Amino acid sequence: MFEYTKTVLKKVSFNSDLFCKELEKALGRLLPYEVDELTIWLKQFTANKPELYSCLNLIN
Hints:
Layout: H1 2-11, H2 16-29, H3 32-45
Helix pairs in contact: 1-2
């Protein structure tokens, strides 16, 4: 499920609203350790995408 989530988030990263919605869904589906992995991946993935920074607030 973690790999699927990453694929979906990559595909919708062109739109911050869609990205936030998909991230919200993923946080409800994933296991706690997968959420931790996703957090690490998101920080790297959004490093040069400032328009997606607001979605990172969903993790906290």
